[in-house]
Amino acid sequence: MLKLTNYALTMALIHRATRVSAVDGVCSNTISSFTGVDCTYANFVANLDVDCNITELFIDDDGAFLAPEAAEAEVAAICEYDAPTQFVEIQGTYRADQRYFAGGGQLVDGDNWDMDTGRIQRFETNMGAKTLIAFPEYIARVQYNEDTGRGLNGYPANMNLETSCDLNTVMCCFTDDSKVDSSFIDNGDATTDVCRHDLHDSPESNHIKEGWSVFPGSETAPHCVGFTWTDGAEELIGNMMYDVSLRNTINKGYREGVPGSPMCGCVEHMPVVEEASCRTATKTNEITYTFNFDIESNDVSASNAVEIEYSDCANADLATQYKANNPSDPEAIGAHLVGADGCADDLEDYLNEEQFLHQGQHSTKYIVPDSSKWSDLVVGEGIHFQPPIIDPIESDTAFRALVNAACQEDDGTTTGTTTDRFCIIRRVCPSCRSESHRDIYYKRKTALPPMGTNSTAGEVYLLDMFMNKWKSYMNNMADGDFELYSTYADALAGTNAWTHCNYDYNGIGFPRDCGPYGYVGNEWNSYTGYHHGYANHHGFYVELP
Predict the structure, then answer these.
(1) In angstroms, how far is the first alpha carbon of the chain from the final one?
(2) How far is CA 312 from each of CA 67, 224, 272, 405, 445, rounded to the nearest angstrom?
(3) Residues with Cβ within 8 Å of residue 158, at least 6 apart in sequence
(4) What is the pLDDT of residues 11-54, one digit of tens each?
């Protein structure tokens, strides 16, 4: 049987039933090896041993040779899930990794350090800097993630790169450095202040649905360290994950996380802290991929070899490195890393946002639209709670009537005449983190899509498009269907329109990751299945004619 390792991700891989045909035992041992190119079917075939015939290599349970497309799929699966060293192989089980990332398990609570760390120490000595490591994914998470709207993947809690790691930044925070003789200070590892943590950001670690923790006084100063990457540069993030987590634990004895939060996770799930150190990984030579066939077990396996160098980032501070990587939206990281001595101001803003402190009106939050210019609240959540009319047709009819109410616009001539236009849709969002998203204006430019709930017939429930299903069908900014603005004055004048927009993630509403200058994540609203966005308090209004 073609063995794809116990850690192959998808259920399709688990159920594969292909075998390898080794004619006369000639095609065996190393059957393909290549360096400096990607692990692909084409490169596998180009470097296949002369004694092996690709057309006779893979067979199914009935003994029939696989078609070329099926053989290509088998090799692609091996390249994706077997050639890289799977993260789970370091500790040996998903459960061990799950507990560790949450801040527990044998490495934290065990009573025999040498035995508990022995497997990882052997990996560190023999493979830690000599192999490409895959970012953590687990078979045990695949069905759970699909069922709970976390995507078709096996990412662990608090590290889902598909649905809740929009900033491409992962961080670990350690509070205990007592396991070995050296301390944070001895190792030259900076400590930081913890500001707060929204408990609903990491319920799979703390098992608390809602709540918050603040740390206003003195407490144990943790060492926080992480890594950040740009889209398309994910090749070594598994190695970086290993470096900031398990390597720190076995080499320096760092353990335990901030109470109520995971020990490691994407920054969206971690506590807000002042600062964090930044680490990275680089290859010092090209990766070699090797495919082997075991004639006794009829197993094909793949491995890789590469020299890895772990080091501090070009900018030793994680927030500074993030800003260097993301010049179009550098301030997004500020919601998670608030800077030196930033906790006091962050806590005041946070507690005001949660309505525990009242010290005057915030300049961009808790906006009350002028009732002479804007409709009553159409729909909203949180402090703007207003459910839609139950019947979708009745609800959408009322909403479209507001939008179609013939608001006026100067025709741009010197005559001073006006023309009819669609009325502007406005969302106010006091809980949004980005200033640009606390007050957004949607200006429709083309005809509205047909009304109805039958999407296969091209019908659109327009209000639900803003609430839960922000889509590109007849609603594409690049095609000129609408414009977005951060102020009403800009919307009226047609100046400073937003430049970026994306769509079509079911369950994610307005405005997904649209932004004034580029991608801005997690500022969308959702009334159905997603709750890790920041727009938990928002309301929609429509301009009056």
Answers:
(1) 71
(2) 48, 13, 22, 58, 49
(3) 101, 164, 202, 204, 205, 262, 264, 265, 266, 269, 270
(4) 333 333 344 554 445 787 899 999 999 999 999 999 999 888 88
| Residue where the block lists tokens 């609903």 | 200
Q: Quick one: DSSP state of residue 462?
A: H
360: helix, strand or coil: coil
C-alpha distances out from residue 387 to 142, 463, 465, 528, Å: 34, 11, 15, 12
With CA atoms as reference, report the closest residue to 443 among 359, 373, 543, 512.
543
DSSP state of 314: E
What's the confidence (pLDDT) of residue 212?
A: 87
Is the model more confident about 262 or about 364?
A: 262
For 311-340, the pLDDT digits (tens) are: 999 999 999 999 999 999 899 999 999 999
Q: Looking at residue 52, what is its pLDDT?
A: 85
Residues, the chain, total? Answer: 545
pLDDT at 372: 94
Residue 118 vs residue 418, higher pLDDT: 118
Tell me the CB-side half-sphere exposure of residue 518, using CA atoms within 13 A: 9
| Integer Cα distance of 292 and 30 in angstroms | 4
167-211 pLDDT, tens per residue? Answer: 999 999 999 998 888 899 999 999 999 999 999 899 998 898 888
Burial 430-454 (b: 16+ CB within 10 A, else e): bbbbbebbbbbbbbbeeebbeeeee
Element (H, E) at 81: helix 68-81
- What distance separates the 2 farthest-apart alpha carbons in the chain? 91
User: How many CB atoms are located within 10 Å of the residue 309 CB?
Assistant: 11
Q: What is the mean pLDDT of residues 264-293?
A: 96
What secondary structure letter does DSSP report for 194?
A: E
Contact (CB, 8 A) for 274 and 339: yes
The string of DSSP codes covering 385-454 is -BPPPSSHHHHHHHHHHHHTS-EEEE-SSTT--EEEEPPPEEEE-TT-SSGGGSEEEEEE-SPPPPBSS-
